[in-house]
């Protein structure tokens, strides 16, 4: 048996299909002295590794529910000038995951919130991080079902395993009775332990209405803004860019979000008409009464009928 035949058998036994497929081409280049023996080995291993890494990423993206794939390269930053491209690129370096921070994307529909959240999730998957993505409605539906079946603790544990949990479309659909409490339990379980990305078309001042309970909304914001990065997008819908003249004027209005002082990533957003800044303790690891009071000021008290 020749050496090349033994190599083929070895590659077959090791299930290195891609290396086996490129072996003849690599040997031909080696015989022509186009590459050295060590380069031939490197080429074979690189081909196999690339194939396996591609399969790993593909499987991880499907498991994370990040299909179809979105990337920062495919995002049209020129259409949303309120975004600082360099800041977004910095977020894709994933340091916020190491710090277990919460990244908020806020803005009107169609401004790219879900695209950016998915793109950062894709970058995390490629970096070997465990990611899971779902809408708030899907999350609450799954938690509600688990609670009904006596598996709530197990389900919350499932959602806390991911190093990055992406919760999309907060504020788009009404929350079912008890759903806000279930979401709070999950947020509390991940607090300071795992990073999250949240997207919403509603300002924080509206979360009492979104979750149907101003007190619970305040408790959510207390945890979701303590270690937070807020990216606010001001702009028109990318999906409707070619049909803007057909949309009634009143539906083009921005969501109830406070314009940032400059296109940037902010660490503690301020709703219009509220305090000009969070208390000094927001930059500290611990939380104070002043911090809790500031969070409460974000959510208007419920109005009497």
How would you characterize the overall build of this protein?
With 305 residues, this protein is of the alpha/beta class. The protein folds into 2 domains: 3-62, no CATH class; 70-298, Rossmann fold (3-Layer(aba) Sandwich), CATH 3.40.50. 46% of the residues lie in helices and 10% in strands. It has helices spanning 3-13, 17-31, 37-64, 85-91, 95-98, 113-126, 136-148, 152-161, 179-190, 207-211, 214-224, 289-298, and strands at 102-106, 131-135, 164-170, 195-200, 228-232, 265-266. Strands 2-3-4-1-5-6 form a 6-stranded mixed sheet. Strand 3, helix 9 (179-190) and strand 4 form a beta-alpha-beta unit. Helix 7 (136-148) runs antiparallel to helix 8, helix 8 crosses helix 9 and helix 11 (214-224) packs across helix 12. The longest helix has 28 residues, at 37-64. The radius of gyration is 24 Å and the shape is elongated. The chain starts with a helix and ends in a 7-residue tail after the last helix.
Write a brief caption for the model.
The protein is α/β, with parallel strands linked by helices and 305 residues long. It contains twelve helices and six strands. α9 links the parallel β3 (164-170) and β4.
List strands and helices in order, with pairings.
Blueprint: H1 3-13, H2 17-31, H3 37-64, H4 85-91, H5 95-98, E1 102-106, H6 113-126, E2 131-135, H7 136-148, H8 152-161, E3 164-170, H9 179-190, E4 195-200, H10 207-211, H11 214-224, E5 228-232, E6 265-266, H12 289-298
Parallel strand pairs: 1-4, 1-5, 2-3, 3-4
Antiparallel strand pairs: 5-6
Q: What is the mean pLDDT? A: 84
Overall 3D form: elongated
Biggest sheet, strands in spatial order?
A: 2-3-4-1-5-6
Task: Count every beta strand, where a strand is a DSSP E run of 2 or more residues.
Answer: 6
In which range does the helix fraction lie?
40-55%
Computed structural class: alpha/beta
CATH arch. level architecture of the largest domain:
3-Layer(aba) Sandwich
CATH homologous superfamily label of the largest domain: P-loop containing nucleotide triphosphate hydrolases
Terminal-residue CA separation: 89 Å
Unreliable runs, pLDDT <50, ≥5 residues?
A: 252-286
Number of helices: 12
> Whole-number radius of gyration?
24 Å
CATH structural fold name of the largest domain: Rossmann fold
């Amino acid at each position: 048996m020749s050496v090349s035949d033994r190599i083929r058998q070895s590659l077959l036994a090791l299930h290195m299909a891609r290396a086996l497929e490129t072996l003849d081409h690599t040997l031909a280049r080696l015989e022509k002295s186009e590459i050295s023996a060590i380069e031939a080995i490197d080429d074979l291993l690189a081909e196999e590794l690339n194939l396996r890494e591609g399969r790993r990423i593909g499987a991880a993206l499907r498991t994370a529910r990040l299909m179809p794939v979105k990337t920062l390269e495919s995002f049209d930053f020129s259409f949303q000038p309120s975004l600082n491209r360099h800041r977004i690129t910095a977020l894709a370096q994933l340091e916020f995951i190491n710090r277990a921070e919460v990244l908020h994307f806020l803005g009107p529909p169609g401004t790219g919130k879900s695209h950016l959240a998915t793109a950062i999730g894709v970058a995390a998957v490629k970096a070997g991080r465990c990611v899971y993505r779902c809408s708030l409605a899907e999350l609450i539906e799954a938690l509600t079902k688990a609670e009904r079946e006596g598996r709530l603790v197990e389900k919350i544990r499932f959602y806390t395993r991911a190093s990055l949990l992406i919760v999309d479309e907060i504020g788009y659909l009404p929350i079912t009775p008890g759903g806000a409490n279930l979401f709070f339990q999950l947020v509390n379980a991940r607090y300071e332990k795992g990073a999250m990305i949240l997207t919403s078309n509603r300002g924080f001042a509206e979360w009492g209405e979104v979750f149907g309970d101003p007190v619970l909304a305040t408790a959510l914001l207390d945890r979701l803004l303590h270690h937070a990065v807020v990216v606010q997008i001001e702009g028109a819908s990318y999906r409707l860019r070619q049909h803007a003249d057909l949309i009634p004027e009143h539906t083009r209005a921005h969501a109830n979000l406070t314009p940032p002082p400059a296109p940037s990533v902010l660490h503690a957003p301020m709703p219009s008409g509220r305090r000009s800044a969070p208390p000094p303790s927001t930059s500290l690891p611990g939380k104070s009464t002043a911090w809790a009071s500031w969070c409460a000021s974000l959510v208007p008290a419920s109005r009497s009928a």
